[in-house]
Amino acid sequence: MDSSEAPLTRRQRWERATNLPLMALAVVFLVLYAWRVLDTDVSPHLDAALVWADIAIWAIFAVDFAVRLRLSTDRLRFVRKHPLDLLVVLVPPFRPLRLVRAALLLLDSLNRATKPRTRLVTFVATSSLLILLLSSLAFFDAEYGAPESKIKTFGDALWWSAVSVTTVGYGDVYPVTTEGRLVSLVLMTLGIGLISFAIGTMTSWVVEQLKTVDDAADRAERTLTELVDEVRSLRAEVAELRTRAQEPPG
Prior knowledge:
α5 (98-110) packs antiparallel against α6 (116-143) and α6 crosses α7. The chain has helices at residues 10-38, 44-71, 75-81, 83-90, 98-110, 116-143, 154-165, 178-246. The longest helix is centred in the C-terminal third of the chain and has 69 residues, at 178-246. 78% of the residues lie in helices and 0% in strands. By secondary structure, it is an all-alpha fold.
């Protein structure tokens, strides 16, 4: 370790040691959750086993959050800075969002010089894909088999999620259950936030590019002005030398 680096705190050491195992658990949960939702003919015994596995994974995430909170010197600040981890514990279906944090850590380890905007774009892109998948699974779980439901396949749920998260709302697929409406409310709220962030990021990027072009044009104009002044100075010197050369010797 570089001697210039600050020593890791107890919480940081815990996070470094548990990040990969918890990321693997997030993937396992995503697979188990998708299995329970998409396999409509799962046996009662297997379904019970999947439920208990889900509870065990949730308990591990809850213990991890509690340990990290206890090891923090400023616990209120820790909660404010880690809303995603709190959401993972409070809302079990969002445990795969732990993969977002893992993606940022991986990006940071691959390139320490990564720009903050790149990290934000990575965060939003990964979050968007996971939210789209999770909301589709939750919506399919709530709507499939319900009376008058338009959801016949998981593809229908994916289509509904894509339409809802972009706030397009064609109206061809809509929730008919209370659970489905709750999923819709959460997804539309997240969709507005994601779209607003995407538009803001794109606008900021365009403004930055225009500023870069303007700065380059200003530098080119200053350079051209300096060259013109230099040429004029050289012409004046040449004219003076010619005048001296034409003077008769004294």
